[in-house]
Amino acid sequence: MRADRLEEVPSCALCGTGERSTLFTEEPFSVVRCSNCGLVYVTPRLPPGVLLEEIYDESYWKSDSPKVRGYADYSAERDFYVRTFRIRNRFVRSFASPPGKVLDVGCAAGFFLAVAREDGWECAGVEPSAPIAETARKNLPGVEIFTGLLEDAPFEKESFDLVTLWDVVEHTPDPVSFLRAASAMVKPGGVLVLETQNVDSLFARILGRKWQHYKHAEHLYHFSPHTLRRLLEKEAGLAVLAMTSRYGGKLVSPAFVAERAGRIHPVLSGLLSPLSAMKRTAFYINLFDELVAACRKPGGGGGE
Ligand SMILES: [Zn+2]
User: Ligand 1 centre from 12 Cα, in Å?
Assistant: First the structure.
């Protein structure tokens, strides 16, 4: 990453206040908390166009240093992601059921869309990272996957019964305009489901700067239940139906556990490395440090 291209973030994306306190610094990045609304964000950072070029290239999805950036091998863990999304889909089904149209924004290799399709949804996806969008197209023949930003996607506004954002909002340079664009895709009365990490969770507080979600070049924001609700309700005009950490877990491989444990302490990684031989095993891990929210877009009859 080119440190000379980093730009200072002058003010909070949620409330516009410039006052903030620094939680910690890992050069060249500082993690700060807005003094007014409490939003936690990273400054300085790469400008939006450079982010796409420098962070979300092919090596993001098969990274040599996944603790710092990206995934060890995203496509190879297909089975784990699909099984994780089947569990999360139970949450989605509490609020929205097929038939209908779903748009997955930041769809990566299309693993959630694969689950949605087997569930009976008509599917579409948006993915700014070109190499993984190509993988999604291969995985899901006949499904329209737009390569680019949501704001540029050719889909008709208010045409989706369900819009999903899995681990996406924390990556977006401007979460307010992003959520408004996502909300604009939802039919009146339709549902938006979003997942992101919870900076106020017990696990995040215990680990402090060693929390696995502090990946400063890519995780630009860290929401809490309070700041996420403000984003969804006040800024995007959605009604929050539920917000929970119950469905925030994921099925992971033993190698993933060893790699992430190494972030807490290198000795843990070494101790757990024999697990990596257990190729077919999967663990369902929920650290309760993620938030999954379901929201309804106002309108669409029902006397509102
Ligand atoms: Zn703020």
Answer: 5
